[in-house]
Amino acid sequence: MAKRQEARAVLDHLIQIGTKKYGTERVGLLSDRLAPGYLSSQILTLDDLIGKPGIPLGRITELVGAYSTAKSMIGNHLLVEAQRQGGMAILLDTERAYDAPWFEAFGGDVDNLIDYNPETIEECFEMIDDVTQALIDFDKPSVIIVDSVSALQTARERDEGMRTPGEHARILAQEFRRLIGRISTMPVAFVLMSQKKDTIGQFGGAFATIGGHAIEFHAAIRLDLRRIGFIRTGKDKTPIGINVQVTLAKSKVGGSRPFQKIVVPFYFDRGADKLQCALPIALREGLVERASKGRVKFPGADKSFYDTQFAQHFTEEMYEELRASVFATGGEDDSTG
C-alpha cells in the first residue's frame, strides 16, 4: 500500500511538472485522452468488426479501395448518422461527383449537408481548419469526409504543372500532425477516402495510394474495401448492388478484430440495408437460427424464410435490442443507427 501511494505521488508530481511546462493538451493521463465517442456506420457488422459502436470521434479513419468499392456509400451512411444525431455533416467533395438525389436516397438531408470543393491539398486543409475552429464548442457527434484524397493536387502542381516525388506525402504528413492534436478531444470523426492506383514497374505490390504511407500512419482505423461480386435480380440477372469484402487493416481501438474480414451487401440505390446487414450478428447472438442452407427462422418457430428476406421479418425494435446487447460490455453505445 505504501509503495502504491509513493508511486502515485511520483505520478502526480510528473503530471504537475509536465502540465506546467508543456500544458494540459500535451501532458496528461491516458484515461483523460480516450476517444470522445463513436459514430455509427449504420452497418452493424462493420461496427462490430471495429469493436465499438462506430468509428472513433477525434481520430482519423481511412477507407481505401479501388473504384466502385462502396467508399462513398459508407461515407453517405456516416454523414446521415451525424445528421440524425444533430451533428454537423461536412463533405469535402474533391471529385465534384456527389449527387443530391443519391444522398437523399440514403436518408440524408441535402439542405443540412455542407459541401466544400477544394482544388488543392493545401486549400483542403485550410477548409478543414475553418471547420474545426467553428466546431470547437459544438458537442454533437459530427463528421468531416474527404472524398477523395486521390483527386487532390498540390498548389505547386496546379500553378506550375510540376510535381516532385514524395510531395503529396510530405504535405499530408505535415497537415496530419497539426490536425491530430486539434481534433483529438473534439466529437468529430475525420474520414479520408483513398483510391488504389496501379503501380508500374515497382516492387512491393500492384497497388499504391496517393500520399504514400502518410495517411495510414496517422489513421486510427484503416478499412480495406474490395468488391467480390454483384447482387443480381430477375431472369436476366441485372446487377442491383455489390458485395464488398471489408478488412480491418489497422486499428488502434480496443476490442476490434484487426485483419479479420466481413462481407457487406451494398445496393446502388440506397447503400447498405441496416436491418439486412444485422443477419450475421443475429445468428451469432441466437436471435435467429439456421433452418437450412440459405434459410433462417426465429427460435421455436416452424416457419423459416430466405436469408435475403431477413429485413422483412426483423423489426427496428429487434435491431435496437440486438445492437444494445452487442455493445453492452463497452457501455458506450451513444451512436445507435
Structural description of this entry:
Helices cover 33% and strands 24% of the residues. The chain has a domain at 35-228: 3-Layer(aba) Sandwich (Rossmann fold). Helix 5 packs parallel to helix 7. Strand 4, helix 4 and strand 5 (113-116) form a beta-alpha-beta unit. The strands form 3 sheets. Strands 3, 4, 5, 6, 7, 8, 9, 10 and 11 form a 9-stranded mixed β-sheet that branches. With 337 residues, the protein is of the alpha/beta class. The N and C termini lie far apart (46 Å).
Stated plainly, the CATH topology of the domain at 35-228 is called Rossmann fold
CATH level-1 class of the domain at 35-228? Alpha Beta
| Rg estimate, integer Å | 22 Å
CATH architecture of the domain at 35-228: 3-Layer(aba) Sandwich
Helix content percent band: 25-40%
Reported for the largest beta sheet, the result is: 9 strands, mixed
Overall geometry = globular
Task: Encode the helix/strand succession as letters.
Answer: HEHEEHEHEHEHHEEHEEEHEEEHH
The CATH superfamily of the domain at 35-228 is P-loop containing nucleotide triphosphate hydrolases
Cα-to-Cα separation, first versus last residue:
46 Å
